[in-house]
Amino acid sequence: MDNKFLIIDGSSLFFRAFYALPLLKTKRGLYTNAIYGFVMMVENAIEKVKPTHLAVCFDMKGKTFRSEIYKDYKGTRQKTPNELEQQWPLVREILDHMNVKILESPVYEADDIAGTLSKLGTEEGFENYLLTGDKDYFQLVNEKTKVLFTRKGITDMDIMTVEKIKEDYGIEPLEFIELKALMGDSSDNIPGIYGIGEKTGLKLIHEFHTIENLYDNIDDVSGKKLKEKLIDGKMSAFMSKKLGTIVKDVPLEESLDDFKKVDYDYEKLSELYREFEFNSMLDRLPEKYRKEEVEEISQDNFEFVEIKDLKEIEKDLKDKKSLAFKFITDGKIYEDVKPIYLAVKVKDSEVKFISYEDIDFDFLKKIMEDEKVEKLGYSLKEDIIILMDLGIDIKNYSHDVEIAEYLLNSTQSDYDINKISMAYFKNGYLDLEDLLGKGAKKKTYTDLDKDDLFKYFAFVLNTIYRLEDLQKEKIDEEEMTSLYQDMELPLVEVLASMEYVGINTDEAVLDEIDKQIIEKLKTLEEEIYEEAGEEFNINSPKQLGVILFDKMDFPVIKKTKTGYSTSADVLEKLRGKGEIIDKILDYRKFSKLKSTYIDGLKAVINKKTKRIHSRFMQTVTATGRISSTDPNLQNIPIKTEEGRLIRKAFLASEGGVLVDADYSQIELRVLAALSDDKEMLDAFKHGLDIHRKTASEVFHVDYDDVDDRQRYEAKAVNFGIVYGISDYGLSQNLNIPRKAAKEYIDNYLGHFVGIKNYMAEEIKNGKDKGYVETIFKRRRYIPELNAKNFNIRSFGERIALNTPIQGSAADIIKIAMVKVYNELKKRNLKSKLIIQIHDELVVDTAEDEIEEVKELMKDLMENSVDLNVKLSVDMNTGANLYESK
DNA sequence: ATTGTCACG
DNA sequence: ACGTACGTGACAATG
């Protein structure tokens, strides 16, 4: 058999792979796109060439002999991004396990080594293949040497032979050196001759073949301008030729025999591919090294039937007491938009579709409320809301693909079922975005062909079943089964109810406040223009910055990456230096109130019910908290009186009151429980004011002698502890010197030793395991903890400290929510849980149930969990949110 | 689509 | 020596 030598230009492939692919990231936060693309290209080339010999060449960092010739060589190269840098050692690790020889030199570049190898190969009569994305290699092509030139993407490859080069460029391979001498190379910062590009260059080389010959016959060049350019650039051309010529006699220790291809270390490769989540790579390995979970999805994934009578599923349900379902709808039922279809799949049966109008709702109610039939779904909250509207009380729903995936990795940006599917399976996907498009032209389900629509939802329902066991297994392995079944799944129904019920909102109250705000804004606007001496857009930070810092010469306190910072803390520091500052702060405040809380809220009041149905989201935050959108009801103003007035628009339902219950210091209590700090536990046990207690320790004064300022500062220290403290952060917050902040912290940790130890332990633990967890085993992976970059690592450490605290508090209130909701339901009370604000619950309470509700809320919230610290709940009632808080 | 700002816990 | 508090969502301006 003939010897075939595959020589790989590692550096160029690595860069090409990185820029050709989106930034892929593993669950642990490892970037893998360059590695993936690299391995893919190498494997493709190996498959194509079937080499007997193999080598990879890399550039090393630092200067090479070319820098001696021209100091600016590669001077235009930008710093490699961090995401790329990280992948570098991992590629080498893979190559090691592929048993490929890696060559690099402090003096020569990858192409010089490759040139030398191809020369060696040529001399021995090998067939040589150079795999690269760099055109420079064309000069190495000869009868025995071809270039595998990667094109756009990572799968396309051109095979460059002598003939192909002649055909494409009309010149000989070696003449590429001459061409580059003339046109230069911007990526390597080789100058060439100014004003000569590929076109002119090719024409000249075609005619004169070498630059020596060109300059010997310079008078034969047509065109005066061009001749001038050539004469002016002669030096540069010859230097560029030197720079652009690939060296072919780099001294090497290895002989060709050393590059003989050897078998891979499959065991190790399989391990790495798993870590990198390279499922398709695993498939290329011999059978016994493949990943078991990778499962082929076939076309039946998309099969379905349409039915006219829902009862057709009844016989299937006889054997399998399990079904997945999804309503297909373009809107919200509480906005009077009815679903178009219902998709159902009884386990192991075909997916069935039925028009919404054709549904026998009594039958639907029967199966949905049948405790013996388990239900599965994806984004079940949406479907439960629809069922609620139909008066159906779903029972025994046991899996929600979205919620499950969120528990497995809470830091993803979305939980699109197609993306989840791609992470578990190999093929057979349908992307909703491909179907509906995005942006302004986004279609609705109604716009789609019925066939496309059904195909997609058939995929969804089939995927729910395919994922069920895999996700549940993982959840079990990570000890989150109880968290999933006893907390998150029951909560889905609670959140569905909160969204469905909504909160009674009085638009007239908002209109009244609006009138006053409009007046205030008008006056402020005029006064600001007056002092600025011109009119401008006060809402534009850019324009405001110009007025304040260029025109009016206020001192610049802080800059953002685009210009001057005009944020409130900056303006705060400028207070007293001019009346305009206070006016801008006021203007900002009222402008915010108007846009977000007057206009914004008015726009989302349901016309028919006069209620606002905020969507409470369960899979958004990295810590386990719930979030609220459209509108966000978790950030209604309270800190300033003007803003707080907005709360008067949120009313109890007719004749009732709002009962508001909030946990007192829940995060600090959680911290006391987690750290088991004796002092802190003691303080809570004795019902002390925790900020006052902190102040007495930080400032070394008696508990009773703490003054207001000290308490205020101690409060900031406590916040800092919860956030993962830094002296700088505290100093900024309190506007005190960093040294003073450091002293506060040292005093604090010197006294609360349990907390100090806990913090160190938590960080170590996070670094070792790659994640931290809450009291109830909710997990958050923190790849930042092992970053080389100080800032990123510090950020990771603060996350490691904050997440267990914030997350455990979130766990606690979630448990309380489920208990309160279920108790209200069990007792058949009219009162409904309608809002959660992280440490606070609001129940829209019927008048005759007030005492009962207050009692049960306090009891269930304070005793929702069993901790070594007491939980304390404060209660308030009122006709509206202003009064109940 | 991104940035700056600001509302909340 | 590094430059920072943790977690969200909405809006207006601007690229």
UniProtKB/TrEMBL annotation:
Its EC number is 2.7.7.7. CDD domains: DNA_pol_A_pol_I_C, DNA_polA_I_Bacillus_like_exo, H3TH_53EXO, PIN_53EXO. It is an enzyme of class 2 (transferase). Residues 3-262 form the 5'-3' exonuclease domain. Keywords: Coiled coil, DNA damage, DNA repair, DNA replication, DNA-binding, DNA-directed DNA polymerase, Exonuclease, Hydrolase, Nuclease, Nucleotidyltransferase, Transferase. Residues 643-849 form the DNA-directed DNA polymerase family A palm domain. It catalyses: DNA(n) + a 2'-deoxyribonucleoside 5'-triphosphate = DNA(n+1) + diphosphate. The keyword Phosphoprotein does not apply. Residues 843-870 form a coiled coil. GO terms for molecular function: DNA-directed DNA polymerase activity. It comes from the Bacteria. In addition to polymerase activity, this DNA polymerase exhibits 5'-3' exonuclease activity. Belongs to the DNA polymerase type-A family. This is DNA polymerase I. The gene is polA.
